[in-house]
Design a protein that fits this description.
382 residues, alpha/beta
Length: 382
């Protein structure tokens, strides 16, 4: 099962909006036969890739797979039918399909065909691997991770005019808050995501590229999403200069001339309803739209205003906050989130299932505001 999870991970950035799945076939004497993993372009599911490689060696074999085999017709036929036809005798699956419409049905079909089914081996690891798929398949919107790099006292930048990026990570003028190891891990997070979002203030201040720099293959380019209420995106910014059908700007007021200038450069501009009294776009509406575009996961690397908007609208599923052993202090330094704030401790955003990571001298806090599987469980029980 560890091997099946490793194989599934190979489909990272190549399977979305489908789940990451790996499969391993073992013969009746316990010897390895073959394996497979899923990519969207290949269409074939992981277990079918493995079955086709195995040829006539499948009778009596055992399948190890990190996700329940499908029992419905989608882009391919039901995988359970192929497993039954191949003479598989046992199936070990790490987890059920989080889609409440099909969850458990694959297991039922296999058991009805007198195939031995074991469920739950390495389930925690399997659920974490496909948490974005679980959120997307039920809520029809991406899993949102709020990411920031900051000092120990929660500052993401020195007072305006200083030389540290509001990413907590540099910018054109230099002066990174976080370490090289932490910044390398951010690239891994980006690679595993379908989209990245910042506010236009970040673009004006930092002129970032917002790209996946791992060099690893992707099915779709990382979608760069900008919250830009009045279309202030500079035409001379690196984002605009490097557009390749991967830049989407959400605004609440669209001045026609600027909109045309952006669209002439290949940038998609979409107007959404107001979300705040000061005219910022409605973030939940944007997430629903991204779901329509089959974006299953998104990192917010915003400035302080966007960070607060995401928290205030309950749009954040997960946090990944990097801390450097530095203290900026002072009232002028930029806080992690700037806005009205939660007025009572009882109202505060509550982070659960926390994991701590070390990156050189830095550390990071990973945790969840929403369990991506809870909604699926609720739907299933209804």
């Amino acid at each position: 099962m560890h091997r099946a999870l490793e194989l599934a991970q190979r489909g990272c950035a190549q399977a979305s909006p489908n789940p990451l799945v790996g499969a391993v076939l073992i013969d009746p004497t316990g010897n390895f036969i073959c394996e497979g993993f899923h990519t969207y372009e290949n269409r074939k599911h992981a277990e079918i890739v493995a079955l086709e490689q195995a040829g006539d060696k499948t009778k009596g074999a055992t399948l190890y797979i990190n996700l329940e085999p499908c029992s419905h017709v989608g882009r391919t036929g039901p995988c359970v039918d192929e497993l039954i036809h191949a003479g598989i005798s046992r199936v070990f699956a790490a987890m059920r399909d989080p889609n409440p419409l099909v969850s458990g049905r694959g297991f039922e079909r296999l058991r009805a065909a007198r195939i031995e089914v074991h469920e739950g081996l390495l389930q925690a690891e399997a659920r974490k691997l496909n948490e974005a798929f679980a959120k997307f398949i039920v809520a029809k919107r991406p899993l949102v991770t709020l990411k920031a790099g900051m000092t120990l006292d929660g500052k993401i930048a020195p007072p305006p005019g200083g030389s540290i990026s509001i990413f907590g990570a540099g910018g054109a003028t230099g002066g990174w808050i976080t370490s090289e190891e932490a910044r390398a891990h951010v690239q891994e997070l980006r690679h595993g995501s379908d989209a990245i979002m910042v506010g236009v203030g970040t673009v004006v201040a930092d002129d970032p590229l917002l790209t996946d720099r791992t060099g690893l293959p992707r099915r779709r380019p990382l979608l760069r999403v900008i919250m830009d209420s009045r279309l202030r995106l500079p035409l001379e910014s690196r984002l605009v200069k490097t557009v390749k059908d991967d830049l989407l700007v959400f605004c609440s007021f669209a001045e026609e001339k600027k909109r045309r200038e952006l669209e002439d450069r290949g940038i998609r501009v979409e107007q959404v309803r107001l979300g705040t009294p000061d005219g910022r776009p409605d973030l939940p509406s944007i997430l629903a739209r991204l779901g329509e575009l089959e974006i299953t996961s998104m990192i917010i690397e915003g400035g302080a205003l966007l960070n607060w908007t995401a928290l205030a609208t309950d749009s954040v599923d997960k946090i990944f906050l990097y801390y450097a052993p530095k203290i900026l202090a002072g009232t002028g330094s930029v806080p992690f989130a700037a806005g009205a704030g939660f007025q009572k401790i009882s109202e505060a955003a509550y982070v659960r299932n926390i994991t701590l990571h070390r990156f050189g001298e830095d550390f990071a806090v990973e945790g969840y505001l929403h369990d991506p599987y809870e909604e699926a469980d609720v739907h299933r029980h209804h």
